[in-house]
């Protein structure tokens, strides 16, 4: 994951390229002072892969059912490329704004606020409003991810113990029991401390995925037996599930900000591109062959389709342990914002108590939300369509337009590409949200 670059050609990597007037890569991505929180490119790569290899990936066979076998293989790389590009827009905007403001580290919400304040006169006073809009979306996304993790772990543990023992606990009961280890994990407050767990979880996860893939390849249906393209009305559910699967955008800046050499995050062979490329290969394989193996009988998450043998039931426990480690990584983002507010507004003597009080309260809230979810797949699609789409596809193009405006380089070409991205985002947001809510209401009516 460690990459090299040359300053002379560095601007060619910039989404905001097209003029040599601005700062180059050496100025934008200057080395940060190393401290106890600093992480290496390899640790950053482990974090990026871990946050994207979560429950969303295991629901991709169902997404392929919504899209059709070959339409899914066509659309998945396109959506991945768009997500990568928009994420790069966000990273470069952060460093451009940080260069202008002489600030090396910024979170997503403050990048949006600063971009608005650098924009046209009529919008500059709305910076705080846009910051809070990003924060709200961030909280919805991250707590939504955390709630989905609870449901995923509970579904798999319930099936495991139902099949291998005389212990029969309801899904709601398992969600409540999982609250104890999750609360313990969320006492860890630094990414550096989570890095060894994330690395170990990645190894376990890859082993479990390889075993699942071996099972998928063992008895494949002929591709001609499955529809190449699904129903048009189901494509929004595919979009929402895929957007949920690429759930790492909110964690991108916190991870990148902890690197003392941020240039290794953004170069062509750096952390971002490498992690997304590896994850895309895995997503395509799981989605395509998962649907090819189980066909229309594929369930909300592919682990529930595994054979009812002790060996494959153990694989489910491996997935549960990996997803459990992902919880504090997703939880890190909203808590980072809250802790900064506490350090600014609360007297030092009360800060520690309040930080842990809020941490435990948010974990309990995500647990309670999980208790209300009727179906895992529908909630995944809803969270992906609303929060993930906003954070990944809506805000970065807006931020880039504002940055270009501040540089006096807002050309028709830049307008065109960002308006296209925004149209894709709005279409996916509207149709995905409508389809997910419609099916969730229907599911409540049947329960």
Quaternary structure type = single chain
- Amount of beta strand: under 5%
Shape: globular
Largest sheet data: none
Total E-strand runs: 0
Q: What are the low-pLDDT stretches, counting only 5+ consecutive residues below 50?
A: 1-20
Radius of gyration from the alpha-carbon trace, in angstroms:
22 Å
User: Helical amount among residues, as a percent range?
Assistant: over 70%
The chain-level structural class is mainly alpha
Order of H and E elements:
HHHHHHHHHHHHHHHHHH
Q: How far is the first residue's CA from the last residue's CA?
A: 48 Å
Mean pLDDT: 84
Compute the number of helices: 18
List the helices and strands and how they pair.
Elements: H1 7-10, H2 25-28, H3 41-52, H4 55-58, H5 60-67, H6 69-101, H7 108-117, H8 127-164, H9 171-185, H10 191-216, H11 235-245, H12 249-257, H13 263-266, H14 271-294, H15 310-345, H16 348-372, H17 376-407, H18 412-446
Detailed description of the structure:
The protein is mainly α. 74% of the residues lie in helices and 0% in strands. It is built from 18 helices and no strands. Helix 7 (108-117) packs parallel to helix 17 and helix 8 (127-164) runs antiparallel to helix 17 (376-407). The termini are far apart. This is Amino acid transporter transmembrane domain-containing protein. Keywords: Membrane, Transmembrane, Transmembrane helix. One of its GO terms (molecular function) is L-amino acid transmembrane transporter activity.
């Amino acid at each position: 994951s460690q990459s090299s670059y040359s300053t002379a050609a560095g601007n060619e990597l910039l989404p905001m390229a097209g003029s040599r007037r601005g700062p180059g890569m050496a100025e934008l991505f200057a080395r940060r002072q190393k401290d106890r929180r600093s992480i290496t490119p390899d640790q950053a790569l482990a974090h990026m892969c871990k946050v994207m290899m979560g429950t969303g990936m295991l629901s991709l066979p169902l997404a392929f059912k919504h899209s059709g076998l070959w339409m899914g293989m066509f659309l998945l790389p396109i959506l991945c490329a768009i997500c990568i590009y928009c994420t790069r827009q966000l990273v470069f905007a952060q460093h451009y704004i940080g260069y202008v403001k002489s600030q090396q580290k910024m979170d997503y919400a403050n990048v949006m606020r600063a971009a608005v304040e650098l924009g046209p006169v009529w919008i500059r006073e709305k910076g705080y409003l846009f910051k809070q809009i990003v924060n709200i979306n961030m909280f919805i996304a991250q707590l939504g991810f955390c709630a989905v993790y609870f449901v995923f772990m509970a579904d798999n543990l319930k099936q495991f113990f139902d099949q291998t023992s005389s212990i029969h606990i309801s899904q709601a009961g398992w969600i409540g029991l999982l609250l104890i280890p999750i609360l313990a994990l969320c006492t860890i407050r630094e990414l550096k401390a989570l890095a060894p767990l994330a690395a170990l979880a990645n190894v376990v996860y890859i082993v479990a995925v390889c075993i699942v893939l071996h099972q998928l390849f063992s008895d494949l249906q002929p591709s001609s037996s499955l529809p190449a393209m699904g129903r048009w009305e189901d494509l929004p559910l595919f979009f929402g599930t895929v957007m949920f699967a690429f759930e790492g955008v909110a964690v991108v800046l916190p991870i990148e900000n902890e690197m003392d050499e941020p240039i290794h995050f953004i170069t062509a062979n750096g952390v971002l591109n490498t992690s997304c490329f590896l994850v895309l290969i895995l997503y395509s394989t799981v989605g395509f062959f998962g649907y090819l193996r189980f066909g229309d009988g594929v369930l909300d998450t592919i682990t529930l389709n595994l054979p009812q043998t002790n060996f494959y039931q153990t694989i489910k426990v491996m997935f549960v342990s990996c997803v459990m480690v992902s919880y504090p990584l997703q939880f890190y983002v909203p808590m980072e914002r809250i802790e900064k507010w506490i350090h600014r507004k609360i007297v030092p003597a009360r800060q520690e108590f309040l930080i842990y009080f809020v941490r435990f309260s948010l974990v309990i809230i995500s647990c309670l939300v999980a208790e209300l979810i009727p179906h895992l797949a529908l909630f995944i699609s809803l969270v992906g369509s609303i929060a993930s789409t906003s954070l990944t596809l809506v805000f970065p193009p807006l931020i880039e337009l504002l940055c270009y405006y501040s540089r006096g380089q807002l050309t028709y070409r830049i307008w065109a590409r960002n308006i296209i991205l925004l149209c894709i985002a709005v279409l996916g947001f509207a149709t995905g949200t409508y389809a997910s809510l419609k099916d969730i209401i229907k599911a409540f009516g049947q329960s």
